């Protein structure tokens, strides 16, 4: 790509690590991105932020921030706001879009407003959790912390005997909890890069549940591309990705997750505004299938960096 020549000598700060439950994954994402940026000719500084976020951003001494921070303080608009205050251009979605997408509740509401189907849900917050009853749509259902990623704190609840324990587990990670109707069928994810929808990938965990270990342990999950699914279903998923990304205001690279029921109905689950870039990550797999090398993917993400997005 022509961007390779434009990036020569550019000072890029890769912000990685952080303090969220996804710290270890962020370190891997950041290391992979930093290596690619060096191959592109950039002058790279890896910045692990744990304290004084605004001071670290202001003192980074770089031209642009490549954000590789997953989870809270990375995908929720906090680091984006620090970059805005420091007038430092950064990759990915802006402050508002990051905050919306980080909240599964808000992300679903925005997607639904654009005509994207979502599973039924109920929200429990603060005192509402005390003695809370299961939602009327019944079991099975999925209980999730609202603002965590990588399936942290998520439980598939098969019956009422598991309800309270699932609420307690989610409450360890967030004061707001989402109970969502479980959609039987298959799981797919669709990436979008600078406005272009990438090929879908089917996720087939060997354990039957795409949990943290299945996501980040090589060999625990099969990723199928191209997806052996009716073309009409995949076209709808692509259109839903465009609509949801536009409604949430997503920029740069993002990845949206869906369930497809046995009748072929597609349901949006959540959006990831800083997708993983590890050896098992899905966005690089989709980009590669679409003809983009890992380095070209990183270059495309960097090329969209800016302020006030």
Describe what this molecule looks like in 3D.
This protein has about 300 residues and is an alpha+beta fold. It has three domains: about 5-90, Rossmann fold (3-Layer(aba) Sandwich); about 100-120 and about 185-295, ATP-grasp fold, B domain (D-amino Acid Aminotransferase, Chain A, domain 1); about 120-180, Dna Ligase, domain 1 (2-Layer Sandwich), CATH 3.30.1490. It is built from eleven helices and 13 strands. It has helices spanning about 5, 25-40, 55-60, 80-85, 95-100, 105-115, 165-170, 210-215, 230-250, 280-290, 295-305; strands spanning about 10-15, 45-50, 65, 120-125, 140-145, 155, 175-180, 185-195, 195, 200-205, 220-225, 255-260, 265-270. The strands form three sheets. Strands 8, 9, 10, 11, 12 and 13 form a six-stranded antiparallel β-sheet that branches. The protein has a four-stranded antiparallel β-sheet with strand order 4-7-5-6, covered by helices on one side. The longest helix is centred in the last third of the chain and has 18 residues, at about 230-250. The relative contact order is 0.17. The mean pLDDT is about 90.
């Amino acid at each position: 790509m022509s961007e390779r020549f434009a990036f020569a000598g550019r000072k890029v700060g890769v912000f990685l690590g952080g303090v969220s439950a996804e710290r270890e994954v962020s370190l891997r994402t950041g290391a992979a991105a930093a290596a690619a940026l060096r191959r592109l000719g950039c002058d790279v500084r890896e910045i692990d932020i744990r304290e004084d976020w605004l001071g670290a951003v202001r003192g980074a001494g770089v031209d642009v921030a490549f954000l590789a921070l997953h989870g809270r303080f990375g995908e929720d608009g906090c680091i984006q706001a620090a970059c805005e205050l420091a007038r430092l251009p950064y990759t990915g979605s802006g402050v508002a879009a990051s905050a919306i997408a980080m909240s599964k509740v808000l992300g679903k509401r925005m997607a639904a407003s654009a005509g994207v189907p979502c599973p039924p849900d109920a929200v429990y917050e603060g005192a509402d959790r005390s003695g809370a009853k299961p939602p009327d749509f019944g079991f099975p259902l999925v209980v999730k912390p609202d603002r965590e990623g990588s399936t942290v704190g998520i439980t598939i609840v098969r019956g009422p005997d598991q309800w309270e324990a699932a609420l307690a587990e989610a409450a360890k990670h967030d004061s707001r909890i989402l109970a969502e109707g479980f959609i039987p069928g298959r799981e797919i994810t669709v990436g979008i890069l600078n406005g272009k929808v990438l090929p879908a990938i089917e996720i087939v965990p060997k354990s039957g549940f795409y949990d943290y270990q299945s996501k980040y342990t090589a060999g625990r999950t099969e990723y199928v591309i191209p997806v052996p699914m009716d073309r009409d279903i995949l076209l709808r998923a692509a259109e839903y990705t465009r609509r949801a990304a536009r409604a949430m205001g997503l920029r740069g690279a993002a990845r949206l997750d869906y369930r497809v029921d046995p009748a072929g109905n597609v349901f949006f689950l959540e959006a990831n505004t800083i997708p993983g870039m590890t050896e098992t990550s899905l966005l690089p797999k989709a980009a590669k299938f679409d003809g983009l090398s890992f380095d070209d993917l990183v270059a495309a993400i960097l090329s969209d960096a800016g302020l006030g997005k």
